[in-house]
Amino acid sequence: MPLIPEEPQIHESAQGPRVTPAAGRTASTPRPVPGPRSAAMPRPGRPGPGPARPAPPAQRPHSTSGQPQAARPENRSAPQIQLIPASAAGALDAADEAVDLLLDSGRAPGDILVLTTGEQHPWAAHELSFGEAAYWAQQEVGDDVFFAGTAATDRVKPRPVVIVAVNGDSGDDAGALSGAQERTGALLIVCGDPQRINAVLGAGV
After folding, report:
1. CA distance 93 to 32
2. Chain centre distance of CA 137
3. pLDDT at residue 15, rounded to an integer
4. pLDDT at 149 over 60
5. How far apart are CA 115 and CA 190, in angstroms?
6. What is the per-residue pLDDT across 165-177, written as a single tens digit (0 to 9) for each?
7. Cβ distance 97 to 31 under 8 Å?
8. Mean pLDDT across the chain, nearest whole number?
9. What does the alpha-carbon distance between residue 191 and residue 188 come to, in Å, rounded to a whole number?
């Protein structure tokens, strides 16, 4: 009976380099401005299942006050104002990134209000498609980031942090920013054209 040579057994080493998750999220480069968001996309305050959001870059040159994004205000009667330079087309993305940074730094989603001067944020447009009653009821619950247009500022309740995306012509930039500031408890972040915003802020808003 012919002998069948045994095939050599290959023992793969189990001692290869182990990949262990980092203690924190890995830093990422600033996100490129994506295309239009889907209306059904989860809002920043309540991300859907999937990989964790990348951590923000170590330094962000956009702050005009020189304070960290989620710094505590020194004077509660005068909210801190920060400017994030962005084009009208990129203002929504800049506002979303600001929301991400705030959440990463420990801010509760219910602390954050996002206002738009032009087109509604995709989340607001999506929620309004189910009716205004359901949309405004979510503000009453107050446990998540809320998005609204500056035209509806009178119906918006104050929150510690207000982000304004100057993504269009409100017809009254001074009034829009003034209304946002009145509803800001600690920090007002404005995303838009610096010259346009500084002109309004310099006028005493």
Report:
1. 9
2. 21
3. 45
4. yes
5. 9
6. 999 887 788 899 9
7. yes
8. 75
9. 10
